[in-house]
Amino acid sequence: MTALAKLTAVETKLLLREPGSLVSILIPLFFLVVFGASTPKDDTVLLPMGMSIAVGLIGLYLLPTTLAGYRERGILRRLSTTPVKPGNLLAVQLLLQLALLAAATALQLTVAGGVLGIQLPSRALPVAIACALGTAAMFAVGLLIAALAPNGRAANGIGVLLYFPMAYLAGLIQPVAQMPASLARVGEYTPLGAFRAGLAQAWTGQSPDLLPLILLAAYTVVISAIAARCFRWE
Amino acid sequence: MAVIEVANLRKTYSGRAVLEDVSFSVQEGEVFGILGPNGAGKTTTVECVEGLRRPDAGTIRVLGLDPVRDARALREDVGVQLQQTQLPENLKVGEALDLYASFYRAPRDWRELQEEWGLAELRRARFGKLSGGQRQRLFIALALVGDPKVVFLDELTTGLDPQARRSTWELVKRVRARGVTTVLVSHFMDEVEELCDRVAVIDRGTVVALDTPAGLVGADAGPQQMRFTLLADTDPVPLLSALPGITAVDRDGAHVTVHGTGDFATAVAARLAQEHLLVTDLRIDQRSLEDAFIALTGRPFDH
Known about the structure:
heterodimer, A: mainly alpha, 10 helices, B: alpha/beta, Rossmann fold, Alpha-Beta Plaits, 2 domains, six-stranded mixed β-sheet, four-stranded antiparallel β-sheet, 11 helices, 29% strand
């Protein structure tokens, strides 16, 4: 097996052994099942919320904690003394966390559509675009945390500190309709809020407002550029 | 043949010179020690040689290659154990060896290495559960898994208990027995004395001495002392003072102190045996590398 394939296999095992992975899948699923049982079949709010929670947990918590931990433990440095470049490890991790997110999302869609009988959107493309941009923006935030945090624990702390205000403003803790109007308005301009808003629009099938998607693309470009500039290998 | 050649190495961090002028060469198959107190520039030196840092000035050749420019080629032939590195908590011993073996074009059989380093029964153990000594064993095995020609071991026994240190020393001797050229960075005098063929003593960014451990101790060998208590009521002064290497013999009742240089203690012991004189409380105050360091730098070696 080539080094890259072996690295992917080993990192996959490590990700599966990490309790945080399971938590990132189960929390949004739990949310969906608890509230989905009593929701009307034509609900368009619940699934976008659940999917946003998964993106938020993985992007803000799991990704930066893992990457900052690898740097703190000297694993990236150790790797740079071997013929394999440490950038490979970052790339593999990024792909695996994306795969984890895809699994979490697929599981939610299956449970919502198959078990709870909630109507899924008829057009998949707008949902896919919103998902791609939202994931990119939140992963960029995660990479920035990983770049700035001095160690894994700090990354964890920053992730948790950011998650709750961002989740609240995005309408993931309380539905947007029940939030104070001013806060809901502000929330639409945060990365997670823009994601939920873009996703919700794609869900209802109405002609999409491009603002959330443009915001997400802008967040992705700007934040990942800062993260790349700040990132330290050791 | 010189495997490593370092000439006039200089490295400055934000205006502070960490390495002033470091030069040394390491011969094939030897265990070369880099000794010095914390902050002397040892790790910076080896990190430059490993290609992890770029020196401000000076030249480095490892196996004839430049560690920065020829990094790709060199990494196949160089094994490294870094100071303060860890692995992911949940990575198992066998997985780590298998993974690191896959990084190299011509690795050693990792299962054989696992056996050789007594890691076979730990192969399913997670890194987070290993003891300090077990971790060091794994790190040395990982440094060797690419079948390197040169291996760097940085502060191998820091933080280990005395027993684990001793067994780690045995491991280094085994590496050496395989003919792998070894650079050993340490701030432990006893470790360097035990393991190294030659030692560069680094202090404040310069090499202050470079010799065999015995040579370092001998080079500045001032007077040494041998003390004992005579059980017979004999005056030892006429017996001993004419022996080679002896500079003075003091006597205080039955307590005798012999001052001398070189291997005078053997001569004294032989003479006493010849005269059938029994002694007790025999002590030889031997100079150690620690004394040599004080002599070289004019200040104590603080860890």
